[in-house]
Specification:
Layout lengths: L27 E7 L5 E7 L12 E3 L5 E2 L2 E2 L7 E6 L4 E4 L1 H4 L2 E7 L17 E6 L3 E7 L6 E6 L17 E3 L13 E2 L33 E2 L4 E2 L5 E4 L3 E10 L4
Parallel strand pairs: 1-17, 10-13
Antiparallel strand pairs: 1-7, 2-6, 2-8, 3-4, 3-7, 5-6, 8-9, 9-10, 10-16, 11-12, 11-17, 14-15
């Protein structure tokens, strides 16, 4: 069983690229929060194209302004860190001082599609690509479901994020296979592209992910350019404000 999975933002964040020659004056930061009533292990996994490594990450408790230690659990590439969030605790990360950062936030287990003790049905991810000109974020149930997670884009700084139905700026996965299909800002299970199954994850898992019949699609309809009834990935040009990922509760839909 693999202990660390690094390549996580290869397909879904395809629109996050540098803006040609444009100076970026706004900075996007991340808030990572525990909205549950118990402490939770939290993982920050960076893409290899990020401006720094886990040793460069500085987390700060937003209530106390005290640093929160991040343990490097990837001694080879230094792209994955683990820390503990107490009930109700929120930490802030400045994205290497406003520099490029891609990756994912997960709770209870590291990002992977194979069953583990703390992720028996794979792992829900909060994915981000920020401070690189064109930004992209989403909640992903592609690899499986182990948590209910919310993504709050209310604070977009000078460049607001797109709004969801009814003007909402908060996305949240359902915790069920069918329930993510209509949801704004959420990639459903196995849907490596928003409106269809690309390369389905977890083919090398032993035992396999127990969720759903092997070839059943839970994806949105329409086309990748115009998925229906809602977007999976949220994009914007520019930067600023805060993207907030919140752990709501554990969810293992066996």
């Amino acid at each position: 069983m693999r202990k660390v999975l690094i390549p996580i933002v290869a397909v879904v964040l395809t629109l996050a690229v540098h803006a040609d020659g444009r100076a970026q004056t706004q900075r996007t930061s991340l808030h990572i929060s525990n909205g549950s009533g118990a402490a939770v292990d939290t993982y920050l996994t960076l893409g290899a194209d990020s401006a720094g490594r886990i040793g460069d990450v500085r987390l700060v408790d937003v209530s106390t302004n005290q640093p929160v230690q991040v343990e490097d659990v990837d001694p080879g590439q230094h792209l994955q860190g683990r820390f503990r969030l107490n009930a109700g605790q929120t930490v802030s990360w400045d994205s290497f001082g406003g520099q490029r950062a891609t990756g994912a936030v997960t709770f209870r287990a590291f990002p992977q599609s194979c069953p583990t003790a703390n992720g028996p049905c794979g792992v829900t991810k909060g994915e981000f690509a920020i401070n690189l000109g064109n930004e992209a974020v989403d909640i992903s149930s592609v690899d499986g479901i182990n948590a209910i997670m919310a993504m709050d884009l209310s604070d977009g700084g000078a460049t607001p994020w797109p709004s969801g139905p009814g003007g909402s700026k908060v996305a949240q996965n359902s915790g069920t296979l069918e329930g993510d299909q209509p949801l704004w800002g959420v990639f459903p299970y196995r849907c490596t592209i928003c409106a269809g199954i690309g390369n389905a994850p977890g083919g090398d898992c032993n035992p396999p992910n127990p969720l759903g019949p092997p070839n059943q699609s839970y994806c949105k309809t329409g086309t990748e350019a115009n998925p229906q009834p809602a977007l999976c990935q949220l994009n914007r040009s520019g930067a600023g404000g805060t993207v907030k990922f919140t752990f709501i509760e554990a969810k293992d839909p066996m």
